Amino acid sequence: MDFRQLKEAIKTKVDLVDLVAESVRLRRSGRSMKGLCPFHDEKTASFHVFPDSQTFRCFGCSKGGDVFTWVMETERIEFLEALRLLAERCGLPMPERLGSGKEKAGPGKREYLEVLSLAQGFFLENLSAPEAVEAREYVEARGLEGVRSDFGLGFAPGPKEIGGRRRWPLAGFFASRRVPPALGVEVGLLGRTRTGEVFDRFRNRLMFPIHDERGRIVGFGGRILPGHESEREPKYLNSPESPVFNKRRLLFGLHQARKRGTAGKVPPLVVMEGYTDVLAANSVGVLGAVATLGTSLTPEHALLLQRFSDEEPVLLFDGDRAGRAAAVRAFRALAESMVPARIALLEEGLDPADLVREGGGDGLRRVLGRARPALDVWLELISMDCDMTRPEGRAEAAQQCRELLSGVRDPAGRRFLQKELASRLYLEERALEPRRLRLPQSFGAGDPGTGKHGLPDPEERARRCVLAALSLDPSLLPALEERWGADEEEFFPDPKLRTLLRDCREGLLDRAGTLEPGELWKSWWTRAAGDEGWKALLLDLQDFASTLTDPAQAASDGVVFLERKALRRATTRLKERIRRAHEQGDSRTARELERKLLAYCRRAAEA
């Protein structure tokens, strides 16, 4: 089943009325179903679902679309993820690559998720067992009993000596349920010694299940219980990276925050640094608290916040040196995607859980109310670290600004931020220009010493120019594709560049030809996550794009240059074939090839 077939199959199988009715109370109104709009506040129903056309529309806020639009708006996901979600709902297989017709084979996410869900049941049950008294006392002492069930807290018991042998509770439980040990190892619940013995990775720990934004358990965090600490056991232990767990793309507590909203709306998000901080905040009514998973805020986290936040999220950090450093790193992640946010700093030596214990919900809300724009806080922290009255301090501040700007993805956003930083720090705007060599706009001017990301090959510069122009105006692609036709691989031999073209093509298809540059960059940067090669390519394209004043003309010039090069290669190959035909005495083939060569020469003259 290919991409289009899957879309049509989903539209056939999913009744939009039933889907909408899961979150909106509908009643019959003529030929439509009517209810209160989930996308804006209203007292008089103006939201309609039309069974005949399988579409919806609100005549108050103008939101509307089909089943895919509904899922994208309510789940705040991109089209491909909506496609996957609806395919799962219908029991339809997803193609391995959209349009390839090849479907995923072998063990997949479903098996891993089932094992993790089974483990969650085991941990939940064990929290009520007699040996979990320390875990229950810890929950009560920290004031978390009221939110224990909301977050599914559990307990991972330690090993037991039975008959002179060490028995591992979770490993034994999996064996009783006929779960292959390899599956437990792959999702990070079990480990394996050098001798092949399987053991529990989590032991004597209070367990926090970690959900993805769709509510599926994809991993766990475990807090060692008092009395079991040792130098060999970290205080907090998270699941390792697995086929379903990527801590750079997950926020603890986001699932719970989403459950409290409707149609994708969530309470104002507050990013903290620990699981117990999130639970403590929820216990006093701050229901949008989330936390990173033992890592600094990443660009992927920033995009999650942007996707689910109706208001600017607040990032809450400790007021000590480590907390200030974390705030600086967090702003870099926010700036990469130009995600607006505010930052609040606690008093030194105080964490959110301590603040809740001492000041309750009012104390926490007072601190959050003092949050300031993230850029203001970042500039203040930079000024604290760099003595702006001394030349070396100003040079250090300029260097930090350059590092920040080099990661900003959107060219227009980077230029705006550069002006703002220069103005606020009283620095020359030119001094903040990221110091990476820009790609020359002249395709023919090659310089073999262009540096780490330099492109001495004029053809490669032309290819990058075309992609950079598309990043500014994706709608140029259909006209350009007509120029290179079926010779895309000839024009773009680098698989990475062809992948970026495919992303642009699919984005235009998904959005009926109206793909915004920001959406295209978002998909490209998502693809580049964690891959330095991809990141270097996109940074080069970003730099190139910032030099283009007329994307349409630049793209056209690039394609013309590539056409000429392709035609020259083709004529060279034809001349060689003509020579061989003459050598073999095949005059008929030689004449046919000569006619073809003449046509190529005319095309080259016109290009």
Summarize it.
The chain is α+β, with helices and mostly antiparallel strands and 607 residues long.
Description:
The protein is an alpha+beta fold and 607 residues long. It folds into 5 domains: 3-90, DNA Primase, Chain A (Alpha-Beta Complex); 107-245, DNA primase DNAg catalytic core, N-terminal domain (Alpha-Beta Complex), CATH 3.90.980; 249-385, 3-Layer(aba) Sandwich (Dna Topoisomerase Vi A Subunit, Chain: A, domain 2), CATH 3.40.1360.10; 386-432; 452-607, DNAb Helicase, Chain A, CATH 1.10.860. The chain has 24 helices and 18 strands. The strands form 5 sheets. It has a 5-stranded antiparallel beta sheet with strand order 1-2-3-4-5. It has a 5-stranded mixed beta sheet with strand order 15-14-16-17-18, with helices on both faces. A 4-stranded antiparallel beta sheet has the order 6-11-12-13, covered by helices on one side. A hairpin with a 5-residue loop joins strand 9 (190-192) and strand 10. Helix 17 runs parallel beside helix 20, helix 17 (458-472) packs across helix 22 and helix 20 packs across helix 21. It is globular. The two termini are 40 Å apart. Residues 97-107, 436-442 and 444-456 have low confidence and may be disordered.
